[in-house]
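Can't attach files on this board, so I'm pasting raw text. These are the components:
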Amino acid sequence: MESQGLLIPIEHGLLFAAALFCIGLAGVLTRRNLLFMLMSLELMLNAAAFVFVLAGAVHGNADGQVMFILILTLAAAEVALALALVVQLYRRRRSLDIDSLDGMRG
Amino acid sequence: MSLVLLILIPLLGALLVWLAERWRTGFSRVLSLAVLGLDALLLLPLPHQAPAGELWWLQFRADWLPNLGIGWHFALDGLSALLLWLTLFIGALSVLVSWREIDQRVGFFHCNLLLSVAGIIGVFTALDLFVFFVFWELMLIPMVLLIAIWGHENRRYAAIKFFIFTQASSLLMLVAILGLVFMQYGQTGVMSFDYEDLLRLQLAPTPAFWLMLGFFVAFAVKLPMVPLHTWLPDAHTEAPTAGSVLLAAILLKTGAYGLLRFALPLFPAASADFAPLAMGLGALGVLYGAKLAFAQHDIKRLVAYTSVSHMGFVLLGIYAMNDLALQGALMQMLAHGLSTAALFIIVGMLYARWHTRDLRQLGGLWSLLPRLSGFTLLFALASLGLPGLANFMAEFLILAGAFQRDWPITLVAMLGLVGAALYALLLVQRSLWGATVPDAKVHDCSPREWSVLASLAVLLLLFGLHPQPVLDLVQRPVAAILAEPPAPNPGGTEPLLQRASMERLP
Amino acid sequence: MTAWLGWIPALPLFSSLVLLLVGGRLGQRLVTLLGVGSVLGSALLSGLLIADFLAEGAAVTTRQLPWLSSMGLEVAFGLYFDGLSAVMLGVITGVGLLIHLYSAAYMAGDEGYARFFGYLNLFVGAMLLLVLADDFLLLYLGWEGVGLCSFLLIGFWYREPANGYAARKAFVVTRVGDIALAVALLIMIQQFGTLHIQTVIERAQLQWLGSDWSFWVALLLLGGAVGKSAQLPLQTWLPDAMAGPTPVSALIHAATMVTAGVYLIARTQGIFLLAPRIMELVALVGALTLFLAACSALVQHDLKRVLAYSTISQIGYMFFALGAGAFSAAIFHLMTHAFFKALLFLAAGQVILSLHHEQDLRRMGGLLRRLPFSALCFAIGCAALAALPLTSGFYSKDAILLQAYGLHGGSLAWWLALAGAAVTALYSLRLFLKLFFGEAVTEPSPDMRPTLVVPLALLCLLALFGALIPQPLGAVFAPLAATEVPAAVHGAILIMPWLGLVTGVLLWRYGRGFRQRWSDSALARSWRAGWGFDALYDGLLVQPLLLLARLNRKDLADRPVQFVAWLSARGHAWLSVTQNGRLRRYAAGIALGAVLVLTVVTL
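---
Top answer:
Structure tokens for the assembled complex are below.
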């Protein structure tokens, strides 16, 4: 099960996933709007999912794609929940600025 | 079986009492008294069932976790019986004195009270060290709740302090118990938490010393011994009257009981080596407690510090390790239980009438409350060790015993008698004498209050003039504790084996 | 007869129990009946017993009721009755009865009437236990019991804070002595395993000959005695104890309780005789005390304080006699002193009552015509105190000085005692003149109240002729070897009181200016303050203790615990800075941590 079936070298795929992850991370760290942070989080999730698909392709194994679908549904459920929370939060606080939401300060 | 019932009745009674308050208001008080009375009825015939000449009147054994060597092992001897009587009597008094004082969550209050009593009964009868530890914890938690829920202004602080002190020290004891059991396992290959098995254990001096120290610290915190006493004034002062009474009269005695039942017999040689230091700490406690009692303005805190002073005598007596002193220490446990409980009850009564515990705001009570004042005078005199009252008998026996063992320390402790006169008379002078406080709308003792105080007074007088029943009761256990006393080992140069063999008990 | 012995202390004890429990609800008549009646019963029984004893003359012991029996220690309630007990019994019940009679009138109408008699009866009972005890522990019970009653009665008028302080001082100072006594008891237990008085003394004489034990035990017993009997260095409580009602001062602080120390030493003479150095110490303590206290009595302004210092001084004579070995003379003086000092106190009470509770000598005077009966009582009392011939005090003091000289010659202590006799006469005269001569300041109400007169008249007779009462002490104390005392010495003893009197009269007639200057001098002021002992103890013990109490009210031992609590609170505050609630910081932290972990793992 060598990487013969792959059109592109695996390193390229991994680098792409890493880049995607870093872009998402940078988004989470720098955006102040909760909505954008969630979108960046989705990016990071997808970067991880991409690695699953990649690994599945490398090993010629469908498990990777199964995992991707699992993550996809998970992400969908998560986003549904998260968006509901965001909407509630916006109704109460009239703001989605993450820096003003520090109610957990110790 | 009756031993198990002795514990089960208050345990189940606690749940019943909690429920009972929902059925009818105030029902829980009557029911609590009934539960304690039933227990006392059960205890009453036990001395007569005792086989003649045996140390243990009766025993109960059942397996719990046999592969770990843990079993339900309870036993009763004169020492336990004395303390059980005290527990049940004081428990009933606690219910009586909180009749009017507690009006919030009454059912839960009595539930906690009975749970604590059940734990204490377990502590006084358990002979399996694991079971002992379980009951040791069981009596602690309800007590913390009693302070934290029904206490005075600063109750949370006091409850947490009390909890941390006792919990930390009992963990130390748990470590010591486990250490002891593993040593036993190493020697015999059989795991056992049973007291009688562990008594046969032979220990080298160094581990014996450290294990003994673990037990000693746990019990010394409860006793309390200076300088580990600082939880006591806070806990006593902030607890409701019933809580202070239970704490002072019984809970402190569990510390002394632990020393007598476990620390001395399990580690006779190590305890003998440690005795001079322990006696010194006892004498220090006598003086330090008296001095601090003398300095207090808060009348409840004053009484709390007298406990430190009196329990210093107990420590002195226990580590004097001879018949006179040990009998005196047990007498002191009884006398202190009665007299300090009485003083706390009186402080509670004064607080109910004036809503202050500050001695500077009290005065001239004699003309307003002649009966209550008479009782206050009597119990203050008991506290200062007036001959004819039980406390004198106890302190005299302790001093007589300790004097033979180590006279300089005993002389130091005797200075505490002057200190006792200082604080007890200060209490009398500040609260009963002097100009009258301006509030004439107070009533003297009600019949319920009167009967509580009179019963305590009669007992103190009785044991002061006729202490023989108590001394006879504890004579056999005391002899067992002192059986085959290890020879003092000043040089420490003997070979290990020889010294280890001296640790053995018959 | 011995079967009745137990009733003598039991009667007053029982009546005190009744009075203290339900006395408030009884009428004044019933209280009087119980209070005085019980002591009357005791007195009658004592009289019968003493008569019996004088006829048969054998010491008796009652049945022993077990009190305490532990391994190595047996203690029982038992009473012992011999010549010494007989004398003490007579003094306590006899003088006690008269004082009770007097009190019934003196205290009439007081709101605490029943309480007063309850305490007073408790005192009589405890004192009787003390002198009848067959066992040191029972003696100790009586010993502390009388101390308690002294405390309660000094503070009887409890609304006045000063009374409370005086009461507490009396109890605490005597308790210092009590502890010495208790240590002596502990040594006896350790050495003999018993506290039975006769057994202890017998064994001590067998085993302690030439050992240090007798020295220490005698010293400790002396410590107990000086506390109770207000001798140097524990004498400071007695003058303040005068805050109590006057009958209390007469009964407790003059006639009976304060002589308990004398009784103790006399009772344990077998041990003291084994320790000659302690005997010398007893004599020296007594002589110093009698002289210092006599000087203090000379300059007091308060009528009752004069009598208090005089009591200290007279008990000093008893101690001096004990130390010199003249035991029967000491007990003789104990008895006569009880008569004349009770007389003086009760007469003083009458004067104070007549003058509407005035006690300051400077505001008295010229009372001779207005209070003739009191003047008569005082004249007899002062004469006996000054040891003028034909009074009881003359015989007892004469016996002390003569026998002491015969035994030890003119030691320092003896010369002090001799000089003290002159000072005694001088202050007795001063007291009498200040009260009854000079110009009148306050107008008194008449003094011939019949209920007060009877006890006083009887005490007058006792003070005059009390020396005739036989003292059956022959079997208790070894007879003294007859020694020749030079006639000059005897003459000096006889002349001394007259010397004091003549000096006094001269000073009164011609020395007005000198008296004024002397009264304001530094020496007189220091004498008035009891030679500064109070100030010394205050600076040395009381103030440091109070300071210590103030400094350490909050319990220093709690500091380490508080420190641990503070440390964990600070640590918590410090760590909680990281919990700032900023989500992006947390995310950055996670990312940084992940990078760090990855770096560590891959490298």
